[in-house]
Amino acid sequence: MTEKLDADDPTATAERVRATLGEGPVLALTGAGISTDSGIPDYRGPDSPPRNPMTYQQFVGDPAFRRHYWARNQVGWRHMERTECNDGHRALADLESGGTVSAVVTQNVDTLHELAGSRRVVDLHGRYDRVICLECREVTSRSSLDERLAELNPDFSVTVEDIELAPDADAVLSSTEGFRVADCAACGGMLKPDIVYFGENVPKPRVEEVYGLVERAQGLLVAGSSLTVFSGRRFVKRAAQQGKPVVILNRGATRCDDLAALTVDAGCSEVLRALASSCAQPADPTWMEATTPPSTRMSVPET
């Protein structure tokens, strides 16, 4: 049965999370909720407005959709580039450095885990700072494309303060008429952000890599994800099938609450920082044994 907590006391909550997961190493799976403290909006948070993200089929099938996307992205990616990591990202990096977290699998494309110092990061849905050609598969930087788009659209000027930002280096613009799109400089093919769109599959080798991480981990910590999309949810299901403890830290309910040993309805930064501080201290095996439900107990190394 799932235990549910509200993080009124981050320190006590962190101890409960630690008791449930044990000493690890555990795999971290993150979503948009971990980056909201950095000023990046999420898709499905309790206070998020309805959003209709562009699908892969729309992007490749309609030049008007592509034009509209690239115009929006020309504004949104610059905001993403200026975004800084927050204490939730830094806490996960500290947990990895201390050996509690084995790796971070993120559904975000903002690259903030790497900026915070995480060394083993799997960008499940790609990265906002790269562009791929759908013909020759050449990958280039988004900054180099920025220069080309600026040359093609010298009169296009929108500041971040004037528009509503959206996730995935996107922005809400009322009109993109006249915006000119750049093709691949190498072969003339169609360029696309190196991001997995809705309606597009995560590359199979990447999925298998994450399954391997789940296999080797002692548990799974989900931070800031509603687990609505299958691309991330499947790893929670795999961990649960293997009898490994799952802890979900998220504002609001998720689609995998019934699979978790513990759910925490809270933001990520304070709880993850408290968890990093807790894990930096030797565990009390007696306390861990007394407070951990039998179904989720893990061995605690002697200290």
TrEMBL record:
One Pfam family in the UniProt entry: SIR2
Localization of this protein: Cytoplasm
Enzyme category, top tier: transferase
Co-factor binding comment: Binds 1 zinc ion per subunit.
Biased composition annotated in UniProt, kind: Polar residues: 292-303
Principal location class: cytoplasm
Residue positions binding Zn(2+): 133, 136, 184, 187
Annotated residues for binding of NAD(+): 31-51, 107-110, 224-226, 250-252, 268
Highest taxon above the source species: Bacteria
EC number: 2.3.1.286
Span of domain Deacetylase sirtuin-type: 6-282
Cofactor field: Zn(2+)
Keyword vocabulary terms for this entry: Cytoplasm, Metal-binding, NAD, Transferase, Zinc
UniProt keyword Glycosyltransferase present: no
Region Disordered, residue ranges: 32-53, 284-303
Function: NAD-dependent protein deacetylase which modulates the activities of several enzymes which are inactive in their acetylated form.
NCBIfam families registered for this protein in UniProt: PRK05333.1
Family statement drawn from the similarity comment of this UniProt entry: Belongs to the sirtuin family. Class II subfamily.
Protein name as annotated: NAD-dependent protein deacetylase
Organism listed in the record: Nocardiopsis coralli
